[in-house]
Amino acid sequence: MEGLRVHAEGTYLDGTFGRGGHARGVLGALGSGGRLLLMDKDPEAIAVAGREFGADPRVSIMRGSFADLGRWDAVAAGLDGVLFDLGVSSPQLDVAERGFSFGKDGPLDMRMDPDAGESAAEWLARASADEIADVLWTYGEERMSRRIARAIVERRAQAPIARTGELAALIASVMPKPRAGRHEIHPATRSFQAIRIHVNRELADLEAGLDAAHAALRPGGRLAVISFHSLEDRIVKRFIASRSKAPAGNRRLPEATGFVPTLRAVGGAQKADAEEVAANPRARSAVLRVAEKLEAAA
Ligand SMILES: C[S@@+](CC[C@H](N)C(=O)[O-])C[C@H]1O[C@@H](n2cnc3c(N)ncnc32)[C@H](O)[C@@H]1O
């Protein structure tokens, strides 16, 4: 919230409404001339936004990916701040029917937008073992990716894998047993994260969303992104660096000339403090990065 530096009469976009915790904070700082644009891929989040904020004349609501924020008419006049609080919301994880959780048996779906693209079950039913292994390795850094992918392909030859509990048990059955006395995460944690990131095109959306936010920000406007794992944070960090710092020189090539920064990084990676973690344990792995659009930028 502090990173966004909300001005009472500004226009702000919360691209990840969730259940509106941040949106409520922004609205509280806005005056009667301010505007708040709300987006989420998830129809349930959008329904909550409509119920809670639909009657507020300062608020506009759009269901969709923040990757497409530039197509929204409400954005055309420019933005003074954009917030992305990435990943899944607690209600998405808590409701078994959404299929995100290895701890709660439900249909193997994992889509934030249940009307878009393939569910996790549909993808796992048709992808090759190599493709599955690549996803588990790239998005989950799962060292047993090939072994798990082989097990999935063997199991689905007998019957489709349709439930989260089934997939979690299958993964657990092929993983090495944890060493006695060591506290290990659930053996399906990395695989579920990887499949979720793939099914929701999370990293591609993030890259497109950062570009779109950058284009929509007015000079002095701020971009604030909260990431929950290193793959996301690396994309955000590189995005800000590539627009705020000239590329490092190469001895054999002439100095890169004509670099004009369009962003200024506001501090580095910021972690939640103890108080925030106590209030919301999920904040433990959160990293916030903030950047400001520069006056000279086109
Ligand atoms: C961590 S929660 C946000 C929580 C929110 N800041 C709050 O205070 O309640 C992430 C939300 O972003 C949504 N989401 C994730 N990626 C998205 C994207 N590319 N476009 C739009 N919404 C997205 C998810 O559906 C989820 O509701």
UniProtKB/TrEMBL annotation:
- InterPro entries per UniProt: RsmH, SAM-dep_MeTrfase_MraW_recog, SAM-dependent_MTases_sf
Q: What is its EC number?
A: 2.1.1.199
Which BP terms from GO are recorded?
A: rRNA base methylation
Q: Which GO terms describe its cellular component?
A: cytoplasm
Annotated keywords: Cytoplasm, Methyltransferase, rRNA processing, S-adenosyl-L-methionine, Transferase
> Which GO terms label this protein's molecular function in UniProt?
rRNA (cytosine-N4-)-methyltransferase activity
User: Where in the cell?
Assistant: Cytoplasm
Which reactions fall under this protein's catalytic activity? Answer: cytidine(1402) in 16S rRNA + S-adenosyl-L-methionine = N(4)-methylcytidine(1402) in 16S rRNA + S-adenosyl-L-homocysteine + H(+)
Give residues annotated as binding S-adenosyl-L-methionine: 20-22, 40, 66, 85, 92
Fetch the PANTHER family from UniProt: 12S RRNA N4-METHYLCYTIDINE METHYLTRANSFERASE (PTHR11265:SF0), S-ADENOSYL-METHYLTRANSFERASE MRAW (PTHR11265)
**Full protein name:** Ribosomal RNA small subunit methyltransferase H
Query: What is the source species?
Result: Luteimonas granuli
Q: Which gene encodes it?
A: rsmH
